[in-house]
Amino acid sequence: MIEIEHLTKHFGSTRAVQDVSFTVRRGEAIGLLGPNGSGKTTIMRVLTGFFPPTSGRARVAGYDAAEQSLALRRTIGYLPESVVPYPDMRVRRFLQFCADVRRITGPRRAQRIDAVMHDCGLREVADRLIGTLSKGYRQRVGLAQALLHEPAVLILDEPTVGLDPRQIIEIRTLIRGLRGRTTVLLSTHILPEVSMTCERVVIIDRGRIVAEDTAEALTRRVEGENRTFVRVDGPREAVGAALATVPGVDAIERADGAAASGDTCSFIVHSGTGETVRKAIAAAVVARGWGLVEVRPLALSLEDLFVRLVTSEAAARGGAGFAARPLEPSDRP
User: Fold this and answer.
1) What phi and psi, each to the nearest 5 degrees, are found at residue 13?
2) Taking the model in full, what pTM does it have?
3) Positive or negative, the Cα torsion across 321, 322, 326, 332?
4) How many Å from the N-terminal Cα to the C-terminal Cα in the chain?
């Protein structure tokens, strides 16, 4: 549904996007992830026909974004980063106006307006002036107009900006519910946004794609190993020595701190395998009569994943790249 081939966009001497290529399949939800200024919004605006590319090609639902922008805009729903609906219109009247622009008529007009007000939590403010609404509610109005015509492709630029925690959860739930029915491309610099709403991640930095895959696959690629957290009821030194002898274990480290006391001890086990070594660890602990309290895989947080990917890409290019610190295991209990 979305095809981007060698997309490049320059603004004078500024290279906002450099040779970007990726695709989004029908019904898929993809997250475009990157820091502010990385080129995400520029890609969105090229896809929606607002900017022509300097070179390369972008197609949405079969339409060329540069040559068929009017036809393309009838197909997509778009929530820009800065929502500016008419402040002197009431919410319901604004959505009626949007329905007229979209040529939604007859019984479907009222049905769609009611549906998006319900889905976006706007019924209680339906008759209020948009200019009197909070930023969070204005964001909801923007999302409602993007969904009004049941678009084949939904493009969302920072959709939860300005929302409170409860509203963020509601919007994420709404976006997840669209997966499989509508193709979604979501741009954000908020890292948990991607893992909670999207099936695949495209990470962009300084106008270039750094990585593209599921968050889980990218984690494996960055780490190059598996880590397992183990908590055992047993003597610390003996448990540590036993874990070190388990086939497939490369190294272990304490995870309960130097001041830990009592009969329960915790370790992080490093290995080249995952489920196989965890089964062996469990068997070794049980065979010695200790209590196995917990054994589970550890993964990098999405924050750590992003920083490592961007930092390694910058090192490969020989530049400073996105400012980052060396990472320590950040997900220990």
Assistant:
1) -85, -5
2) 0.70
3) negative
4) 42
How high is the pLDDT of residue 302? 62
Assign 321 a pLDDT band (cuts: 50, 70, 90): very low
C-alpha 50/C-alpha 126 separation (Å) is 30
The residue type at 177: G
CA distance linking residue 292 with residue 116, whole number of Å:
50
The DSSP H or E segment spanning 293 is strand 291-298
- How high is the pLDDT of residue 332? 37
Per-residue exposure over 236-265, b if at least 16 CB sit within 10 Å of its own CB, e if not: beebbebbeebebbeebeebbeeeeeeebb
Question: Does the structure show a pLDDT above 70 at 219?
Answer: no
Concatenated DSSP letters of 8-21: EEEETTEEEEEEEE
Q: What is the dihedral of CA 312, 313, 315, 321, to 10 degrees?
A: -110
For helices 91-101 and 107-119, give the axis angle rounded to 10 degrees. Answer: 130
The structure tokens 């947080």 sit at 301
pLDDT digits (tens, 9 = 90+) for 58-110: 999 889 998 998 899 989 999 987 777 889 999 999 999 999 999 999 999 99
The radius of gyration of the chain's CA atoms, rounded to the nearest angstrom, is 25
Which amino acid is located at 80 in the chain?
Answer: P
Q: What is the pLDDT of residue 325?
A: 30
Are 41 and 187 in contact by the 8 Å Cβ rule? The answer is yes
What DSSP assignment string belongs to 89-153? Answer: SBHHHHHHHHHHHTT--THHHHHHHHHHHHHTT-GGGTTSBGGGS-HHHHHHHHHHHHHTT--SE
Would you say 173 and 6 are in contact if contact means Cβ atoms under 8 Å apart?
no
Distance CA 135, CA 123 (A): 16
Note whether 9 and 35 are within 8 A (CB). no
Q: Which helix (H) or strand (E) holds 233?
A: strand 226-233
pLDDT of residue 323: 35
